[in-house]
Amino acid sequence: MSIVDAFDSGQERRSKSHVKNLVRIAQADGEITEDELKLIFKVGSRHGLTKEEVQEILDHPETVQFNPPSDLEKKLERFIGLMQMVLVDGVIDEAESALIRRIGIGLGLAEEKILAYAEKSTEMIQNGEDTDDIIDALRKVK
User: Fold this and answer.
1) Contact indicator for 51, 19 with CB cutoff of 8 Å
2) Is residue 104 pLDDT above 70, yes or no?
3) Helices (H), the chain
4) Using one digit for the tens of pLDDT, what is the confidence trace for 5-21?
5) Of 17, 123, 103, 128, which is closest to residue 138 (Cα–Cα)?
């Protein structure tokens, strides 16, 4: 296997892991809405996954291993994506909040900052701000 193949397969595993986490968030309230499905497929496509690969993750999320990115910017980007999923239906319930916290810890984010990250990203997402601006703001969270 070449270095390029190893990188691509690592990137693909991280992409599938992210989509799996989006599926977990969407399922947390007991149902996946049409808007949540659209977001899952959009994110999957943006991360280079085929519709078939995304559907396979939807059908069998347990087969995808959690594979977090290593750098802070990518971790925050993933976290923001999770928050976008939570906000699709306009309601953040207890199960979603608990799952966001667990996934945030799994991403390697500082546990004591996750609530502040969630609050700040929610505010900025609802204000229509873009991911880069949200990442910049989250980097400043104390």
Assistant:
1) no
2) yes
3) 3-27, 34-46, 51-59, 72-87, 94-106, 114-126, 131-139
4) 444 478 899 999 999 99
5) 123
Rounded Cα distance between 116 and 99, Å, is 15
Structure tokens at 49: 């996954």
Q: Report the candidate in 96, 99, 82 with the shortest Cα–Cα distance to residue 31.
A: 96
Nearest Cα neighbor of 15 from 79, 70, 69 is 69
The two structure tokens encoding residue 105: 């810890």
Domain chopping of the chain, boundaries: 3-139
Please give the CATH number for the structural domain made up of 3-139: 1.10.3680.10
Mapped onto helix, strand or coil, the DSSP state of residue 68 is coil
And the tokens for 98?
């608990």
Q: How far is CA 21 from CA 2, 140, 142, in A?
A: 29, 25, 26
Q: Could you give the CA distance from residue 10 to residue 7 in angstroms, rounded to a whole number?
A: 5
Closest CA to 36 of 46, 45, 44, 26: 26
